[in-house]
Amino acid sequence: MSMHEKNATFVTQFLLLGFQVSHGKRLFLFCLFIVIYFMIICGNLLIITLVSMSKNLHTPMYFFISQLSISDILLPTDIVPNLLHVLLNNGGTLTFDDCITQFYFFGVLETFECFLLAVMSYDRYVAICNPLRYTSVMTSGHCVILTLFCFLFVLSLILIYTITIANLNFCGANTIDHLFCDVVPLIDLACSDTFIIHLEMFLLATPSVFIPATIIVVSYTYIVVAVLRIPSSTGRQKAFSTCISHLTVVSIFYGTLFSIYVVPSKGLTLTVSKIISLLYTVFTPLINPIIYSLRNEDIKKAIQGTVHKLAI
Predict the structure, then answer these.
(1) Residues 6+ apart with CB under 8 A from 119
(2) Where are the alpha helices (DSSP H) in the chain?
(3) pTM score > 0.85 for this model?
């Protein structure tokens, strides 16, 4: 017996509409997303390969960057292939279980990135505010444990929320005017009372989003104070330059995330909501490796070294 039968649901599949535009525009978007997805895979695989092969990059900061790249490969992989199918066919169907599964992995990967960015800000805090203790605090073992703890915690947290959504009754319309199975469109289609869902959304948002965001804000508050105490302008610039890439990634990620889930969306059209959702599911994974490559001398040197080895 399938999940939806156990939960006495009448809807056996959902219809994703995607972008309701002309055939020519859909073909253009199809080609565009194929190119973007290819660039995401290549860019993030390059970061992962460089970090694993270059001894100069065997540090906690680059270990976390490589984990971010893994997440940035998995998240679009959960969204883009089905989106391409929807664009090509002017809509596409997902079974109830497939929709819930897509939502689960989407939630896990987005929330894991929240925690990972918080851990990376803590890493920068220790490096700048307690440099003498950095090697003893941020050991390779501690980095692995931190990453595993965040991932396992997120798996459990999102599983609770996903099970609650899966137990809702869907007995009416099954059309989702969105690009993938997200929480808001799913709740809108539910026939049963969604009070518990909204309560869980509020309760789980605190540990999954606001706690990591608070860690980032507090860490950078201490970092700014420590940097301002450095007497030379060159020293201040050098210390803060190690944080610029991370701050840029954090700003893009949280800016798009908050705009769709925190800021009231009543004034937003469905098209604008879809575009914003693409920013944190497709654009951020695309731009992250570019940010870390362009503003990072170590990454540039590792690329040059790898190219030189291949050329020999």
Answers:
(1) 64, 146, 147, 150
(2) 3-6, 23-53, 60-88, 96-129, 134-137, 140-166, 183-189, 195-205, 211-228, 233-261, 270-278, 284-294, 297-311
(3) yes
